[in-house]
Structures are given as structure tokens and as C-alpha cells.
UDP-N-acetylglucosamine 1-carboxyvinyltransferase (Mobiluncus porci), 438 residues
Amino acid sequence: MSVLRVNGGRPLHGEITVRGAKNLVPKAMVASLLSAETSQLASVPDIRDVEVVTKLLNLHGVEVDFNKSVGVLTLRPAEVHAASVEEVDQHAGSSRIPILLCGPLLHRLGKAVIPNLGGCDIGGRPIDFHIATLRKFGAEVEKLPHGIELRAPNGLEGTKVELPYPSVGATEQTLLTAVRARGITELRGAAVEPEIMDLVAVLQKMGAIISVDTDRVIRVEGVEELRGFNHVALPDRIEAASWASAALATGGDITVRGARQADMMTFLNVFRKVGGDFDITEDAIRFRRGSDGDLRSIVLETNVHPGFMTDWQQPLVVALTQAEGLSIVHETVYENRFGFTEALRRMGAKIQVYRECLGGLQCRFGARNFYHSAVISGPTPLTGADIDVPDLRGGFSHVVAALAASGVSHVSGVDIINRGYENFMEKLVALDADVELQ
Ligand code: EPZ
């Protein structure tokens, strides 16, 4: 397991580039299965999640060529075949993406075997919405010790789906199944994140008929055949915001090429309220601390889009340890997303987590024994420590904390960061960080 040695206490400054969103690219790759024609996806980052889904598609007979230098993926799903339980099992725990293969494989083969899922340990990560939705389309779903087996001997029928919570994954599941189901599908309570809208754009290019109405209602008219697509993935707004928070936390100045204001409006408002400043040009956003250099505490609640994204909160919490006063963060999307604060406390941060909902939003985790609210008191000087990465976004935050801390830190388990941040080490070096992989 790689250990990153960080000599902190220096501002990050310079320019980096973000490419396609980790939370869209693998879904578009899965969507290619819905057609026998070749598809092309551009602005694809060289990250582990792309590798994992490539292997899973290869297993089912899809040829995938990735030209990493230009970031273009070519997918050839002409010959799709079933994979054995043993073969699929090797992908158990790899990511959350396999669950999205259900609809496309049922349309192509009439059956599917899906391994147990992976993904960051930030909550239970149940798939009950997914299973319920697939059964509504007419799929037979059998849970097995190592995953699930599905059949649709009579094909799939359009249906009405009402999600109890605007789940991104369950919305993608419904879209990827509805586009070739017979008849109309109406999805209520849908997630409407920019990554979802980009997946809708991909499916529309393939020939799907999808309308996104007001109040989170999506309607799909199923079609017999779909074509290949040619698409440029939207930029990764989570990575862009992660580097923006790194600029705040270290008192630096980072230009993120590829960042798109439209996808980051809520983040930019919070960034400015905390005391950050930014300049927006055609194809980049320059993030830095405001002229007076001080950071201000805030009250923040994460939420589904267009709210403040749950994946934005971890790196921002590191910056809040340097803000004057008490900040309150109420995490309403995942029940267990403050695990990373333990390491920050060991570095000198004053962070207390609570089971109560510290915010006005209706939250599913109130009084259920989940530590999903945090109070951060600042500013507190951070000092280097030996810390271990808990998950992807928490891992990025650990490195930011080490960069903001005075002295040397050793961050172990940094490999996980490559799942979602392309060329992570190269970017740190480009931003003048004093780091060494050991
Ligand atoms: C996607 O996860 C992203 N991952 C997450 O990013 C992101 O945080 C999340 O959406 C919310 O925006 C990918 O796209 C690969 P959900 P997903 O279904 O689809 C509950 C990152 O670091 N739920 O919207 O798994 C669930 O427990 C990752 O990039 C059910 O109860 O998220 C959670 O509380 C982290 N039953 C809430 O919904 C279900 O069947 C949101 O989950 C499904 C979800």
C-alpha cells in the first residue's frame, strides 16, 4: 500500500485540468451496451473506475479501446454474451457500477448475473430501490450469496416508478432499463444531477425518447432499437471543487481548466461565503482566498442537486478548520460521511460530530444513531501526522489536510484516490506541493 510523504504548510498554486466526470463516464460506457453499434466517448479520464468497467464490459464481449493521451474511448458491443458466475464474481466489490448492467444485459441477453457491489464505505449503500424498479419492469430477480441473478424471458415492460429518495443510481437504473422497454415509463422522484442530464443526453443521441419534466418527473417512451453514440463527457465538478477547497485550505491559488460554472453554482456561492474568490473564463475557473485572506465559518447542509453536493463537503471541511468561528455541517445524503474527521482531530482540528440533525432540512438519519452532523471550531493550526485514507473523497481531504498542516505527514492507502482523481500525483507536483510517494 503506497504511502504519500507530505511536507505541508505551503500554499498550492498553479494550473491543473479536469476531464470527464467519474460519475458519468462509467454510466455512458454501460449505456453503449444498449446498442450493437460502435460508440465513442471523449474527455475520458485515466482513472481506476474506467479500468474496472472496461474489464466488466470485456467480460461480456464488448471490445473497448482507450486512447489515454487524447482521452477517447471506443466501445464495440456488437457481440455481447453472458458471463459465468465465477467470472463475474471476480468483480465483486470493485465498484457500484455493475448494478447498472442489469437493464442493458436483460435487453441484450434476457438474463444477467451481477456481483456484490463495492464503493466507498460512507453508509449502507443499499440497492433496494434498484431491485424494486427492475421487478416493476418485469424482471425476475434472485438474490444470491455472491450477488444477484436476473431474467426477463418475456422482455421488459414500461412501468411507473416512484423513488422514495432521489437516488442517482436508481434513476440511472430506471433510465437504462426504460429506453428499450415496451411502452411508456414514468419516473417520479428522480435525481436530476448534471451527470444524470448528461446520461439522458447520451441516451437521446442513441435514439431514446426521454422528457425531463418539472418536479423530478422523467418520462421515457421505449424504442426497439438504439444506435451508437458520440459524446464528450461533462467535466468532473467534484474534482474541480476538491481542488478549489485545497486552494482555500492551503491559502493557495489554483486554476482548474475544464471546470464549468453552470454545474458548480451552489459550490461557488458557498466558496465565496467562506471567504474564497474566483475568476471564471471560457474554459477554466481560478480559485483562491479572498483579498483579506481570512476564512469565515458557515452553516451548511448537503443535499441532492441543485443543493450542496455531498461529495463536495469533505475537502471543504478541511478549509473550515482554518475559518474563524464555528461552522456547522449537516450531511443529509449519507449516514456515515464524517469518518475522515478523526484524522483531522489528530492533526489539531476541533471537530465534534453529532447524531442530531443540525439543520432545517428533513433528514432520514435523525434519531437513528448516525453521526451525520459536525461542528468545526476554527481557526486551529494543523500539524503533520501519520494518517490512513478511509475512502475516496475522505482520502483527498486527508491529503489536503496534510498539505495545510505544518510539518511532515505520512498518508497511507492513497491508491484509492486514483479511483476518482486522474494523475493525482502529477497534479500535486504541478501545484508545487512538496510530496513524495514511498
Ligand atoms: C452516486 O452514488 C455517486 N457515485 C456518489 O459519488 C454520490 O455521492 C451519490 O450518487 C449522490 O450524489 C457514482 O455515481 C458512482 P444514491 P449512488 O443512490 O448512486 C440511498 C463519489 O465519491 N439509497 O444517490 O450510490 C443511499 O443509501 C461517490 O464519487 C437507498 O436507500 O448514490 C443514500 O443514502 C460517493 N436505496 C442515498 O440514497 C437504493 O437502492 C443516495 O444514494 C439506492 C440509494
About this structure: The chain has 13 helices and 24 strands.
